[in-house]
Each structure stands twice: as structure tokens, then as C-alpha cells.
Amino acid sequence: MKQNKYINHLTPAHIAKRRDLEGQEQQALFIWMYTRYRTLYDCAFHVPNGGHRHVAVAKKLKGEGVKAGVPDILILQPRGGYHGLAIEFKATPPKSAPVSDSQLEWINRLTENGYMAVVCKGFAAAKETITKYAHLPAG
């Protein structure tokens, strides 16, 4: 029997990709940062902690140092007396997920250690945070 070529659009993986609003907003944020604040962009990266993985892959990553709750975006450029900026990025409400206990622990830990660490709900909030951070004195 020939497999229906349209069946793939019903798979959980396809549905998850289509509904990854957080990922889409975050991608737009990095494009915006590249065009507006290139020096920050050059020191910025996404920490790929989220998503669903096979148990064996998750165990391997944990053994390599992956830790739950680490913020999604790190900008390792000191400004305004901070060592860098850490952003726990959530989709724009009402599509945003709740902030987990481990994410709040990391935000607090990074703040205590001299980083500006925040939760941003959506592209606009993250853009505003990065703009304010960019205008702090460098160094």
C-alpha cells in the first residue's frame, strides 16, 4: 500500500514545529539584533536547552554539562557594571509558557553573580531590554 504523502502534516513533530512561536520570535530577535546592535550580536548566542529529546541523548547532554533552567539567550559583553545579559525568553502572551522554578533559580544566581538576568515575554520585551542594555556604558 502506498503511503499517503499528506499524512506527515499530522505528526506531532510537524505540529510542534509549526507552533514554535517562541522559536520564531527568538529568531526574529536575533535578526533584529544583527541589524541594530552588531557588537552585542557578535557576543550573543542561544542555549539550546529546551525541546524534546530521546532519553539517551538527554542523558548524554546532561553528562556533558547541560543544566535545566539556564536562560535561553546569553550576551557575553560587559556593560554598565554587569558581566553580561541573560534572557529567559518566552513567547508573547497569551502564548507564553510559565517560568519554571529552575529558570527562576538561574535568573537569581546570575543576578547575584553580576549579570543582568531577566525574563522577557515576547519579541517586544526582549528588544526593549537589549536596547536598554546596549545603551549602558561598555566595559
Would you kindly provide a written description of the structure presented here, covering whatever features stand out?
Strands 1-2-3-4 form a four-stranded mixed beta sheet, sandwiched between helices. The protein is an alpha+beta fold. It is built from six helices and four strands.
Summarize it.
The protein has helices spanning 12-18, 21-36, 38-41, 55-63, 101-112, 123-134, and strands at 44-46, 73-75, 85-90, 116-121. The protein is α+β, with helices and mostly antiparallel strands and 139 residues long. It has a four-stranded mixed sheet, with helices on both faces.
Present the secondary structure layout:
Blueprint lengths: L11 H7 L2 H16 L1 H4 L2 E3 L8 H9 L9 E3 L9 E6 L10 H12 L3 E6 L1 H12 L5
Parallel strand pairs: 3-4
Antiparallel strand pairs: 1-2, 2-3
Helix pairs in contact: 2-6
Observed structural traits:
single chain, alpha+beta, 6 helices, 4 strands
| Apparent shape | globular
Overall residue-averaged pLDDT value: 87
Query: Percent helix among the residues?
Result: 40-55%
Distance between the termini: 65 Å
How big is the Rg? 17 Å
* β-strand number: 4
- Order of strands across the widest beta sheet? 1-2-3-4
Topology pattern, helix = H, strand = E? HHHEHEEHEH
Largest sheet: 4 strands, mixed
**What structural class do you assign from the helix and strand content?**
alpha+beta
Number of helices: 6
Indicate the low-confidence ranges by residue numbers.
7-12
Name the assembly state: single chain
Beta fraction: 5-15%
